Amino acid sequence: MLLELKHISQEFGGLRALDEVNLAVNEGQIYGLIGPNGAGKTTLFNIITGIYQPAEGEVYFQGRKINGNPPHLVARMGIGRTFQNIRLFAKLSVLDNVRVGSHAVTHGGLFGSILGLPAVRREEKQTLQRAQALLEMVALQEKRQEYAENLSYGEQRRLEIARALALQPALLLLDEPAAGMNATEKQELMSLIHHIQKEMNLTILLVEHDMNLVMNICERIAVLDYGRKIADGSPEQVKNDERVIQSYLGAPA
Amino acid sequence: MDAFLMQYIDPYFLRILVLIGINIILALGLNITTGVTGQLSMGHAGFMSLGAYTSAILSLQFSAPFWAALLCGALVAAFFGFLIGIPTLRLEGDYLAMVTIGFAEIVRVFFLNFEPGGKAVGLSGIPQNTTFGIVLLLVIIVIFFNARLLKSRLGRSMYAIRENEIAAEACGVNITRIKVLAFTIGASLGGLGGALYAHYMFFIRPQDFAFMQSIELLNMVILGGMGSIPGTILGAVILTIAPELLRIVAEYRLLFYGALLVLLMIFRPNGLLGDVRIYDLRKRWINKEVNV
Question: Of A87, A105, A108, which has the smallest distance from its Cβ to B154's Cβ?
């Protein structure tokens, strides 16, 4: 098991955002997390990545307890993420956005950098090559010199994925990667997710509202509602779950 | 070199050139803290003061060699930059600005009461070791290392912190560490600039490093373009020359600054060169050609 959440609870000023949530993600899985707005999906991501500390419960990653670690250490352990409200480095080039993503897996220090020591130069070269390969993968190679803020919405979402992949994660968290995308872009995104999952031997946990996308690419889906997990299973099971239909999917017309 | 130059250049202009060089070093230091990393520091003159007094006292009391005085000035300032970096970096924006103003004021008041620093009278008779040649050499070295730093992994993480702290953390950037590093490097250049200044002016007083000096340095960074090395250099050049040109209306200099900044915010909110890149210029140029 790659990621395991045990009895996670979180409160924001009396509001119980998460209530005793358990989740187990196996290596190589594409795991979907769905639920109505405000169900606690992003809160769960923020707990996994160390932005919030859970009020109760534990997070295990590769068998190690990771809650209590600051976000940058969680990232270095191999958890990459994207953000629901895109958080790119607006005034950095597309290429530099991805290169910052490599921060966790590189070591160049102050003196090595300013003196231009061979080890640092070699590392910089590798960083550049990796970044370019990732940009190729998300089809942004041609825009590598543009400021990130000048990209279209769909391009920005893909850039976020490339940046998250630059830290060579074992687990990738995607927070609504298809939000704001049109049908073609969504189709491309689906094949991209499939591709990176296979190519990089990744485990992916994703939050998404687009049911078509979720049902298509996820092997397993958990449903949150008001901070509680109300279902967990294969797409077929979830689709036919009485409570899920009631609270989220809605009855077929 | 200076004697040679004097034959061809008016000493007055040579003096302005030296001051431009010192201001470039000072402003490039502040640019790392404020322009690149985005941590608003309004107390850069405090670091300058520490460098100036440290080096001047070393020269006067201990007859230290010039290079040692410069080095110690920069190191002492760096140490205080590091020290003030740790608690203040939990703060952001306005709060950080307040603390840095307070820090510079504390330094000023300290030297106002510091016996070996000559109290309010200041120090005079500092050996005039700062020459145009030395300033030029140091400016080139500082620009070179600055450019290397900003293009490196650490430089990129500094820009990333300015752009989005949460995303930078998600990339594995240790925000506290990088911020303290930026503060320390910025302060060390402040100290170096201050030490050069002391050994050029021959005479320093605590008021030389008062709040307005911090603001002037900040203006150079903002005018030229936050985070841009060429921009900061341009800002330092313009704002060193401007008061000379406006000597006739000396009292209204502040009025001029104010008006300049207002105009800048209207027409170039990112500073003169803040978001200008060769890539964009070339693209614009090529597009123009296509249109023709």
Answer: A108
In the predicted model, what is the mean pLDDT of chain B? 88
Q: How far is B81 from chain A (nearest CA, A)?
A: 16
A206 vs A35: CA distance, rounded Å: 12
Owning domain of residue A181 = 3-249
Joined tokens for residue B194: 């201050």
Which residues constitute the domain of residue B36? 2-210
- For residue B91, being part of any structural domain is answered with yes
3-state secondary structure chain A: CCEEEEEEEEEECCEEEEEEEEEEECCCCEEEEECCCCCCHHHHHHHHCCCCCCCEEEEEECCEECCCCCHHHHHHHHEEECCCCCCCCCCCEHHHHHHHHHHHHCCCCHHHHHHCCHHHHHHHHHHHHHHHHHHHHCCCHHHCCCEHHHCCHHHHHHHHHHHHHCCCCCEEEEECCCCCCCHHHHHHHHHHHHHHHHHCCCEEEEECCCHHHHHHHCCEEEEEECCEEEEEECHHHHHCCHHHHHHHHCCCC
How many domains does chain A fold into?
1
In this predicted structure, what is the pLDDT of residue B51?
96
Interface check for B92 against chain A (CB to CB < 8 A): the answer is no
Residue B83's alpha-carbon distances to B56, B184, B200, B218, in angstroms, are 22, 8, 28, 21
Answer whether residue B95 is part of any domain. yes
d(CA A210, CA A215): 9
Distance CA(B117)–CA(A159), nearest Å, equals 55
d(CA A107, CA A126): 12
CATH number at residue A38: 3.40.50.300
Would you state the pLDDT for residue B88? 67
Residue B173 domain flag: yes
Residue B218 forms part of a structural domain: no
Rounded alpha-carbon distances, angstroms, from residue B127 to A221, B19, B45, B201, B202 = 75, 17, 21, 9, 6
Q: Does B161 touch chain A (CB under 8 A)?
A: no
State the pLDDT confidence band at A72, using cuts at 50, 70 and 90: very high
The angle that helices B11-30 and B175-201 make with each other, rounded to 10 degrees, is 160
* Residues of chain B contacting A118 with CB distance shorter than 8 Å: none
Among A32, A35, A31, A66, residue whose Cα is nearest residue A51? A66
Per-residue pLDDT of A51-71, as tens digits, reads: 999 999 999 999 999 999 999
**What is the per-residue pLDDT for B292?**
45
- List, for residues B263-273, the tens digit of each pLDDT value: 888 888 788 88
- Low-confidence residues in chain B, pLDDT < 50: 292
The mean pLDDT of chain A is 91
Which residues of chain B make contact with A120, given a CB cutoff of 8 A? Answer: 152-153
